[in-house]
Give the backbone structure.
Amino acid sequence: MYFCFRKMTSRRKTDHLERTAANFRQMAAFPATVCGIMNESEQVRRLRLAVTHPDFSFKAGQWVDFFIPGMEKVGGFSICSTPTLLRREGVIELAVKYSQHPPAHWVHRQCTLDSQVAVRVGGDFFFDPAPLSRPVDLLLVAGGVGINPLYSILMHAVDLQRERLAQGCGYEPGAVRLCYSAKSAQDLLFKKSIIQACQDFPGKFFCDFHVTRQSHDVDPEIRPFINGGRISEQVLKEHLQHTAEDRDTLCYLCGPPPMIESVSEQLQRLGVARDRILFEKWW
């Protein structure tokens, strides 16, 4: 199974558990230990969590309920790493933007190496093709920290491509195109590893960065991939024109609700069937 589609509804901001009450989630929460902390940007902190229980697993694109001892509020953070990293090292990664929301505030102000938390996987927004599934093209459209689940999906497709080349079998991804918008180049998370993946597999993986506040101190290696302005309908049209006519295209969207609603409407005007447009809103 690749995905589950949810209808867009109200923009009202609600608690994470209330907002996701209808979503799939694991029955149990699993203990996790913070084993790495790094700053992904000025406002985003990246956590590495060791989760060693053999029953813990996730699909690229899913999130976790994040339980902090002694805190009533439960966080909801998308996993930005891949299932391969979990299988290989017993680790998942979260990229958390600073806010006054208690779980996010704790991540930025109180979390330390060896902090003990618990996580429970949930979410119906994921990419999990079976080894013999028919290849599909992916168009990933991200806004701000909405890149997190799409980065997991992108890098999962990269892992599948590497496995296919190394073993000569397994799922073969179609073309994967990432269209990612942020306020500035500094706010584009994971940009160097995204570019590296596209350079490792030219003709298979593509990235297109958009910034709404252009800066003049952009790394020369990044500059060729950056365009000014928001993601427009014309930009989406150009990406869709490069997808294969003989393959299905799935469009995964994640970002602020107004952006997701606008992009979904634009894609439908461009002829993409509604059930081919999959989304996850962040609030």
